[in-house]
Design a protein that fits this description.
There is one protein chain. The protein has a single domain, classed as Rossmann fold. The chain starts with a strand and ends with a helix. It has a 5-stranded parallel sheet, sandwiched between helices. It contains 6 helices and 5 strands. Helix 3 packs parallel to helix 5. Bound molecules: 1,3,4-trihydroxy-5-OXO-cyclohexanecarboxylic acid. Homododecamer.
Amino acid sequence: SDLLLINGPNLGTLGRREPEIYGTDTLADIEAAVAEEVAGRGWKVLSVQRESEGELIHALQDGYGAAGAIINPGALMIAGWSLRDALAAFPPPWIEVHLSNVYARESFRHRSVLAPLASGVIVGLGALGYRLAAQALLAKVPA
Ligand code: DQA
């Protein structure tokens, strides 16, 4: 099966994007780390990064058969209502990840409209958060 790794706007530039906030790992580093976590279960990582909400919705619609998903929606956490509807209809378990501790930042980042639908949320642990999300999905999905 596939594990869907979804990253939203401005996450393709990880490594050079405000590294003091988001760290120096690139998206390729994160993809490799997640792939390493789930390889033992035979899961393949299908990684999708898009700058626009509609394209992320397409990726979710195409991914109904995935074993699970990890999603960092970027700023779509704040008002991504269409993405929220897409996630409400998305059957596999999924975990929301934010690299930074959004609660320690501007107040507009304190509420994710997606988080109430997630199996779990991981914030503030940097790239490690993606690995932990992968471990949680492995534990959640029966082998
Ligand atoms: C982010 C936090 C969001 O508020 C921000 O818009 C991002 C990155 C994170 O991973 O910390 O793009 O999702």
